[in-house]
Amino acid sequence: MRFLNKNTFLSLAFILIAIFTLQGCGGGNNNPTRVEFTPPAPFNIESNANVDSSYTTSDGLQIYIIEEGYGPFKVIARDQVSVFYTGRVIKNGDIDRVFDSSYQNNNSSPRILQNLTKSPISTGSGRTVSPLIDGFRRAILGMRAGGKRVVIIPPSLGYEDAQEGSRGYQLRNDTLRFDIELETILD
């Protein structure tokens, strides 16, 4: 006895495939690769009581030292470092939004930064590591483990030269603020 003819079987198979496909798509926010920035509040630089010292370089880089840090060693360009940071866009003198952070999806893991030089470097595995934007790179140089800084980066020391389609292109005309905490110098 035949329960299904060929057309009924194909129709049923099509319906089941459609149901499983739609179910797999989901309707919620189930994307495991979605990154949500969850940083702590920005370091307070408005009150001089919270800043150990500050200075502005001739090209407009502003560095506020919140805590000096400890240990005998200061970061130099050849070092790899482990840092917590949050990058924010500044509009009209106020914080507009977070665009990058080591604090993601309610986790705080320091990032390992491998290239504090001005040029790309090659790793032992043949991978090329691009340099950080100049203002961020310069802010880290000279820090000690446990040190905390805020750096205000003008576009000329940030992503001003970013080409269309490249990382940072949307930030090319923006003033940036990074809150940085150096966890450790790795080498």
TrEMBL record:
GO MF annotation list: peptidyl-prolyl cis-trans isomerase activity
Domain PPIase FKBP-type: 78-186
Keyword rRNA processing: no
Enzyme class: isomerase
Signal peptide: 1-24
Keyword list, A-Z: Isomerase, Rotamase, Signal
Reactions catalysed, as given in the entry: [protein]-peptidylproline (omega=180) = [protein]-peptidylproline (omega=0)
Superkingdom classification of source: Bacteria
EC number: 5.2.1.8
Presence of keyword Signal: yes
Family designation: Belongs to the FKBP-type PPIase family.
Name of the protein in its database record: Peptidyl-prolyl cis-trans isomerase
Higher taxonomy: Bacteria, Pseudomonadati, Balneolota, Balneolia, Balneolales
